[in-house]
Amino acid sequence: MSGPLRLVIFDVDGTLVDSQGDIVASMTAAFEDADLPVPTRPKILSIVGLSLDVAMSRLAPDGDTDRMVRAYKDSYAALRVSKGAASSPLYPGARAALEQIAALDHVLLGVATGKSKRGLDGLIEAHGLEGMFVTRQVADFHPSKPHPAMIETALAEIGVLAQHAVMIGDTSYDMDMAANAGVTGIGVTWGYHPRTRLSAAYHIIDSFDALPTTLNDIWREHP
Question: What mean pLDDT is predicted for residues 181-206?
Fold first, then answer.
C-alpha cells in the first residue's frame, strides 16, 4: 500500500496471547501469600489490562499492594520459565496476522500493555517475535490504561499522527485508552471482556482473519 506512515498497536494479554491460566494462578498465589480470600476467576479476568498495582488495589483495597504485586510477579516469572511459550500461547491466527500486517509498506506495529518490561520481553522472546514491534509501551513507565500515555508515547516515538494509528485490544480499558488518545479502537471478542464492554470501540472483530479487511476499511476512511 502507499500513503502516510501508519501504526497498528496491539494489547497483549487477551488480544495476542491467552495468558489467563497463569494470570489466575499468579493472582491466586498473591492472595494466598497475603492470607486473603482469592477472587473468582471472572473477577480476576475483569481487571486484566490495568497496570498490576492498580489491578491489585481494585481486587484487594485493604491489602498490602506492594507485597501482593511482588508475589504475583514472582509466581508469573516462575511459570514463564517452567512453561516457556506454553505459558501464554498465541491465539489462533495471531502470528499470521502480525506477519501479514508487518509486510505492508508504510505500516509499523507496536505494543501497549499492562505487562512489565520484563514480562513483555520474555513473552516476545518465547514466541520468537523479536523485531516485530517497533515500539513497546509497558506499565513500568506509564500511568495505567485507560490513560492515553502509552499510545501518545508510541505515536511520538514513531512520528505517526493519531488519525493514522489504531489500537487493538480485548478490554474496555484498551478502547477507552484509544478514544482518549484520539486513535481508532478495534475491539476483539476472544479476550477477557465481553462485547458489551467494548462500546467505545470503532470496530469489533471476532477473529484475526477479519483484521486485515478491517484495517483496510479504516484506512480508506482515513486516507
Answer: 96
Q: Are strands 203-205 and 6-10 parallel, antiparallel or unpaired?
A: unpaired
pLDDT value of residue 2: 59
pLDDT at position 119 is 87
**Catalytic residue list contains 13:** yes
For the record, the C-alpha cell of 16 comes out as 495476542
* 170-179 confidence digits (pLDDT tens): 999 999 999 9
Q: Which three cell numbers stand for residue 115?
A: 505487562
Which cell numbers hold the place of 72? 504475583
- DSSP SS3 for 50: strand
**Active site includes 121?**
no
Length of the chain: 223
Cα dihedral across residues 33, 37, 41, 47: positive or negative: negative
Distance CA 211, CA 186 (A): 9
Catalytic residue among 13, 18, 170, 176: 13
Q: Which residues are within 8 A (CB) of 32 and not within 5 positions of it... i.e. 6 or more apart?
A: 38
- Report yes or no: 87 and 80 within 8 Å, Cβ to Cβ: yes
Annotated catalytic residue within 11, 18, 22, 170: 11
Residue 185 carries which DSSP code? E
